[in-house]
Amino acid sequence: MHYATTMCRAAQTCAAVATVILLPIAARAAVPGITGPTFNLVASADYVSQPDGAAIFAFGYGCDGAPAGFAPFDGNCPQMQLPGPTLIVTEGDTVTVKLRNNLPIAAGNTSIVFPGFQVTTGGTGVSGLLAREAAGGNTVTYTFTAVKAGTYAYHSGTQADLQIEMGLYGAIVVRPATPPTNCRPKGPYSLSSSAYGHPSTCYDREYMFQLSEMDSRIHDAVLAQVQACLAAPCPQLVAKIEPYRPNYYLLNGRSMPDDMDIPYSPSYVHQPYNANPHMHPGELVLMRMIGQGRWQHPFHFHGNHARVLARDANLLLSAADNSSLAGPLLFTTPTVSGQTQDQIFSWTGKGLNWDVYNHRASDAVQVPCHPDRNGFNDLAGSANFGEWCADHLKPIPVAPPDPTIVAIGQWYAGTPYLGLQNTGTFNNTNEPPGTLNQNPPAESGYAYMWHSHNEREITTNDVFPGGMMAMLLIDPASWFIDETL
Question: How far apart are CA 382 and CA 378, in angstroms?
């Protein structure tokens, strides 16, 4: 497929970057994970891959035996993965996590802390600074009640500066026990129909973005000590943490372009989760974001602003009535280390001032646009559901639009319209060169770069493009988005 994207540079300028991305399979990304409420995890060590060919020694949580189940579709859960398995539970569940320490002898003890939850350990494990710990080869059990819906992080509480850097972190999704009745039915690849019990937190599809970084020199130093000590007793691992100079930047454990491959790809045995959002115009997309690294990462999403629903699973409500959502609209999210954020993103094409589907006058009857009270097409089941009706039938400008709108402003994509793949309305006539829908029913849509707004973080070991970068694809309503591919 052929896309053009933009990159906003740190020097307050934006340059249009034309790229060609060949994807034999159009990869998606939901919020895949394992279901509980009982989880048997193990902390292990292995190697993770990077697009430059590097194999980096790392730690990670994984499944100690087959999990109770997978959601929202079947996958796999190795004994070590980066990030750790996403734990999916329901509000009110009593959650039990049993952790076995299978790290190298030199790593010593390990543990898990669960920010936002009141945890008990039942006397298992050994005393630690932040949590009960599992000594090498032993286990520790944690229990808590998932009192509130939302997105949470979990991570090591033992020698945390080093063990989190090595990869011991993951995410928890707590689904609301009673979603609001005003939400649309839950989609096939959504964990729920709402993020919280609040009526303004409905969504149609969802994506997880765990942002982290790695300094491979630290990992190399740990590997050397692990290889030097194969039998107890061993001195505690020591690695020079400062100055901290990460050279790999990760979305859900992968760097671009690997993060655009399919979830559970056999090419990344220990990195099962990808980061490749797709949506239809007018859909509400829940973005679950977690800062899992040491650094703050400014996550910049082209296409529109997103409304912040909650931070650390706490809804941002109006002080006036304590019921209306009061979170800001953001175009770049500062993903603070350790913090989670839930946001709602949507795209309609409003403001482009041309018909995003490239409808022609002859389509007026065949493809009508019926505006709801907000001006968007609300004809359920129509191929152009969610279209901004005020621009229906408006032709694509013969003269190119103002470059500050398409390259620097909030609207930009490599294709000038979506097209209706399943109707055969458009063939390869009178269409601008480079469009994707010249041969229906092939997929085509608007493409937007989602990336770190820190320029060095969109590199892989100083090579651009890479790092914290993904592509949002806006697909026509007629295109079924299969998140398993």
Answer: 8
pTM more than 0.70 = yes
Which of helix, strand or coil describes residue 19?
A: strand
Quickly tell me which residue has 């896309």 as its tokens. Answer: 3
Residue 243, preceding peptide bond in cis (omega within 30° of 0): yes
Structure tokens at 183: 């939400």
Read off the tokens for 185.
Answer: 């039915």
CA–CA gap between residue 168 and residue 58 (Å, rounded): 9
| Token digits of residue 61 | 């949580």
Amino acid identity, position 120: T
Q: According to DSSP H, which parts of 397-458 are helical?
A: 403
Per-residue pLDDT of the chain (485 residues; tens, 9 = 90+): 222 222 332 222 232 232 223 333 456 779 999 999 999 999 999 999 999 999 999 999 999 999 999 999 999 999 999 999 999 999 999 999 999 999 999 999 999 999 999 999 977 899 999 999 999 999 999 999 999 999 999 999 999 999 999 999 999 999 999 999 999 999 899 999 999 999 999 999 999 999 999 999 999 999 999 999 988 788 889 888 899 999 999 999 999 999 999 999 999 999 999 998 999 888 899 999 999 999 999 999 888 899 999 999 999 999 888 788 999 999 999 999 999 999 999 988 887 788 888 787 777 778 888 998 989 888 877 778 788 899 998 887 766 556 555 544 444 444 545 654 333 332 223 333 333 333 344 566 778 889 999 999 999 999 999 999 998 888 877 778 889 88
| Diameter of the chain measured on Cα atoms | 80
Please name the helix (run of DSSP H) or strand (run of DSSP E) that holds residue 219, with its range, or none.
helix 216-228
Domains in the chain (CATH in brackets) are: 34-201 (2.60.40.420)
